[in-house]
């Protein structure tokens, strides 16, 4: 899905401006990196380019569930205790610890983004889908164009 120039600018601005300096090196909420994270097509392209340079993602296809949170996100590297695509992680991951419904479990942050609900409503209208969805759509496009 093509984003309008305004939406594209807003998403890039959010990526750049959401604070996360206190998360540096911390992995205390890593077990919540679970399930299939939705992202916009632009974010998918950032992740795909990053992975093309760096390799991965690390998660084997059939990774079992962990506790209450289900199977880990495909970008979760439990061995390193890190997000494999941290510099290009999608918006929902950037909001973790900053909005009231995704609080920092260590209490390092208060609510730093009070308009998080409005941001997520806007983001939902951009049509975020899973990485697998976008990957499969791009493979189909290649076959159609071939
Ligand atoms: S949100 Fe809190 S627990 Fe999660 S990485 Fe940041 S400081 Fe650590
Ligand atoms: S993309 Fe990274 S930060 Fe987001 S859920 Fe997956 S592992 Fe966690």
Q: Can you walk through the features of this model?
A:
By secondary structure, this protein is mainly alpha-helical. The protein has one domain. It is built from 5 helices and 4 strands, in the order H-E-H-E-E-H-H-E-H. Strands 1-4 form a two-stranded antiparallel ribbon. The longest helix has 15 residues, at 131-145. The protein starts with a helix and ends with a helix. One iron/sulfur cluster is lined by residues 22-23, 26, 28-29, 96-97, 104-106, 108.
Record the strand order, biggest sheet: 1-4
Q: How confident is the prediction overall: mean pLDDT?
A: 88
Number of strand segments: 4
Relative strand content: 5-15%
Return Rg in Å.
Answer: 16 Å
Shape: globular
Would you identify the regions where 5 or more consecutive residues have pLDDT less than 50? none
Order of helices and strands: HEHEEHHEH
Structural class: mainly alpha
Helix content: 25-40%
Number of domains: 1
